[in-house]
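Q: My labmate handed me this sequence with no annotations at all. I'd like to see what the chain might look like in three dimensions before we decide whether it's worth expressing. Could you predict it?
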Amino acid sequence: MRSRCLCQICTCGRHRCPHGNTRIYENSGMPCPTTEYLEKYPTYGNVLPPQSLKPKQEFRAYRGKMEGITTFKSDYRPYEIVKQPCHIPEEYKPKLGEIDIGTTYKRDFNSYKVQPVAKVQPLERQQIKKGKLDTVPTYKDDYRAWDIQKSELYKPEETYHPPTVKFGNLTTFQDDYVPQEVKPRQSLKPSSVVKRSTIPFNGDTSHRLDYVPHQLEFKFARPKEVYKPTSQPFEDLTTHRNDFQGLVGETAKICKPAYNRVTQSAQFEGSTEFQESFQPWEIPPPVVKKIPEYVPPAGTMQLSSTSHLDYVPYLANRVVPIRPVSYRRNNNFPFQGKSTTKEDFPAWESCRPEIIKRHQQIPSPSGKFDGLSTFRSHYVQHELIPTESCKPVNVALRSSIPFDDVTMYSTEYTPKKQEICPASYPSPPGYIFENTNSQGHKFFRKVTPAVKAF
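A: Here is what I predict for the chain of 454 residues:
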């Protein structure tokens, strides 16, 4: 009888043999590489995996001697270079005798004595007016005036007579508009008065209720160090004082000429447009906020600070300013404020022109404002009829007929007895344990019942 593995005995597909380490990985400490793929697809023969043709990433150094021959050196053939002959110019030797500069133009051309051309300009004629010039031009002689009569106009004469009575017709706006009294609308804005509640204020917060006071630890106080002044005097000499030596010098003289002021004793008595347009207005005094009376705090104030306590005064001399002597002149002459602008542009008396206002032709309404518009007068209010909703009522339908819950599944379903997987038992019934191979599969042998001989 052939033995069967626990994986083959299982009928539900949930039980597998506890795979252990294979022979290859028994002593390596790696997990079992057995998978479902290896179980269903066994190896066929000694088939080796294909070798990779990818070159290895390593540098192979060539230890032989390098030949310095290139394709250019092997193909190139050197030729003998012959220097090209150079033409040597002959030495210049001037010819003896005179040069014949004569040309065919000079030989064929005969020169003539030419005098300057006189200007052909008419002499200036001075016209002397002795009497009246009575002449007739050619235009008046050729084009004479004709006796043409003026055509009469067919347009009737309409003489405009201005009306003597004042225009008293009313416009369509004045006919349709009825002045009515304007009634202010009732304000729906809530009042800004703060409403005070009669219930006393509950000042308990979560912090006050949940806070547990703890006793503070004693703070470490560092002892104060006593200041020890030095016995040496304070050196206040700087590099600027050491290097700079104040030299007494004279100030530069002013080359500006003296300015003589020309003043006017008369006072300006003119009026400006600003003074006429803007008259002084009585301004009420500003409201001064009452300041609460200062109440000094009780007790004495400690005016001692760390600077006053730690500061040690030194006996130092005051620094003398190093500056040149000033030769400023004090002039007591009055200021001369006269300029060319004041002399060339004196003040002129100007009068403001009066405003031209048009007289109102349409009389202002005297009655009360009605406030009735054409929309309000023509509008007819109709009673609104709401449209009926075609949406179905969201209510569950109730029927007296019993619910038919018969389905095809309930009619065609045939209940079957649920079988228990034999691999779920520690030892499958009807099988005897034989052994466990190197891959971890447990093999069982099926027990066949003995047949009694008759």
